[in-house]
Amino acid sequence: MSHHIELPPLPYAEDALAPVISAQTMSFHYGKHHKAYVDNLNKLVAGTDLADTPLEKVIAAAAGKADKAGVFNNAAQIWNHTFFWNSLKPGGGGTPGGAVGKAVESAFGSQENFRKEFANAAVTQFGSGWAWLVADKGKLRIVKTGNAETPITQGLTPLLTIDVWEHAYYLDYQNRRADFVAAVIDKLLNWDFAAANLARAG
Ligand code: MN
């Protein structure tokens, strides 16, 4: 059986984000959770008209369709997780400069205010989901999505995301989601990735 969607390689070693995110968390989160979404999607679309469809088109085709909820959930979670790994880097965090820094200051008033609003969105997402920095017709804003939902179905361009499903932090932080979120924002966010996404948004 051909596997049309592959698990993308991590952009760094599994221990590269420690101690903010441990190698043990990465081995489960990437090696088990992310991989399972890939395996599940390949099984769900095998022999269907979505079998040879690129991932983003699978997500668009399945979004909002009750009979394709399984396809949507697995496809969107593949996309969201790949985007999350790229939203992080060892030695990241800090305050962005250049066009993305200016856009952050314009939208949120200050870098510190952005940091507070992004952390608040990540901490207050009820249950499983994601916090996102997105470009919306050239203006930056913060959105939250539940479960597998993704801003790419809403015409928004994601710049960065934080996964706040419990599997993202429970091994390292237990119930202290706010500590996980603060450490990710301050030490791991990949502003080069955000800048590249903003430039692509035009
Ligand atoms: Mn996850």
Model description:
By secondary structure, the chain is mainly α. The protein has 2 domains: 23-86, Helix Hairpins (Orthogonal Bundle), CATH 1.10.287; 98-201, minor pseudopilin epsh fold, CATH 3.55.40.20. The protein is built from 8 helices and 3 strands. A 3-stranded antiparallel β-sheet has the order 2-1-3. Helix 1 packs antiparallel against helix 3 (69-86) and helix 5 packs antiparallel against helix 7. It is globular, with a radius of gyration of 17 Å. The mean pLDDT is 96. Bound molecules: manganese (II) ion. Manganese (II) ion binds at residues 29, 33, 81, 163, 165, 167-168.
Secondary structure layout:
Layout: H1 23-45, H2 55-62, H3 69-86, H4 98-108, H5 111-124, E1 129-136, E2 139-146, E3 157-163, H6 170-173, H7 177-187, H8 191-201
Antiparallel strand pairs: 1-2, 1-3
The structure holds manganese (II) ion.
Manganese (II) ion is lined by residues 29, 33, 81, 163, 165, 167-168.
